[in-house]
Amino acid sequence: MDVGTALLGDRPLETPDGFDDGDLDLVLRVRKGDDDAFRSLFDRYAPTAKALAMRVVRHTHLAEEIVQEAFLAVWRNPDGYDEHRGSVRSWLMGTVHHRAVDAVRREESQRRRTEEAVAEGREDQPDHAEQVADEMARPEERRLVRAALDELPNEQRQILEMMYFEGLSQSGIAEKTGLPLGTVKSRTLLGMRRMRVALGGLER
Amino acid sequence: MSARDHATIEELLAARALDGLDGEDAAALEREMSAHGPSCDECRRLEVEFSEVAARLAFALEPLPVDSGMLARILASPGPSSGGAGPSADDDARASGPGDEVAAARRSHRARRTGWVGAVGIAAAVVLLAALVTVRNDGTQPVTRVSSAQRFVPFEGDVGELAMAYTPGEPGAVFWGRDLPDPGAGRVYEIWMVEDDIATSGGCVEPSGGRVGVSVDADIGTTDLMAVTVEPTCSDAPTSDPVFTASLA
After folding, report:
1. What would the DSSP string read from start to end of A54-82?
2. Does this complex have an ipTM over 0.90?
3. Residues forming beta bridges with residue A48, ordered by sequence position
4. DSSP character for B48?
5. B98 and B128 in contact (C-beta within 8 Å)?
6. Is residue B149 within 8 Å of B167, Cβ to Cβ?
7. Chain A interface includes B134 (CB < 8 A)
8. A70 versus B247: which is more confidently predicted?
9. pTM of this prediction?
10. CA–CA min distance A179, chain B (Å)
């Protein structure tokens, strides 16, 4: 079952920015050691991966290491991608996110989670870093996802953001907010269901 | 399968896609999905859909420029068609992710006892080490090449796979494992360095989805034996028998 069928029946998954176009082809080429294919994947996803890692760990060097680690694993083991389990995009972002969350939970007591650390990290961006501007921008996708998040009830959005962007577990959120664990779980599910509809066009 | 059969799975998969599952729930999800089997279309559909939703959340963020040297460093490292690959390396390469390198290491460990060294398996695991070691570096010059001085050590245990790598004479070690049983609610795996029957804690870890990947700053020094126990909390001394051991002698 391919991802398109999984999400939209017999209608291929499409997004305004043409996501997933050619991603599978790139991975297949990477499996044959194609540097250019890997370069394309990297250019396409590394900046967002960096943003995600940075948002979770809030430390520039650690975010860079997480991104490098994730893409190194892709380069070393492109066969790790299983197209029956989702898109290349979800595989890459899932890998990055998982590593970032692991880092957060492992180094919670040592992590510098201050406004100054975040600001310092952003100020330290290497001025020589260059990525294809078009690949970095993806304004339409960003608008779409942000709009979907904004449409969520506040309590659901809060839970999803704490879990995904702050790396908190459900019990961690329950502890931090004082909410019952069951409430956290139900809001997680409801929020994800709404996002699935908003982004995939499905009714559940 | 009735809709009710997947209510629990759907709830757990939604959280897992966000990496929000606690250990107990992660284990519960594995049990539920195992009971349904790998051919359950509904399980697969839920997993794929929630993973896609989670991945797209990342694109709500403004992309950030990446160190321009990173791509070059990655491409300079052995890739999927690097030399030394043989049938066993190809089998390893078809694994589902970095965790499966542990399987390669374990086969190498067993083979070593019979006198044959699985060089490719070790090489594959050592490359993973190169990726993991970067986590604990200060980031100025991430390690992308592994020196021959680094030592790889697979653990022996009844369930699951665990391995470590370290550089003799230098502090720190990297541990990674998969298929690790849930240590139980509120319990952790604790790593011990044993020398002359004295155990020193190297830290505690909690598997996520049965997997761990962690670096510790402990000084391996002249440790004879590494051991892992299940503890109610990070302790000063082991309170139970080891579930994993590895000799460094």
Report:
1. HHHH--HHHHHHHHHHHHHHHHH-GGG--
2. no
3. none
4. H
5. yes
6. yes
7. yes
8. A70
9. 0.58
10. 15
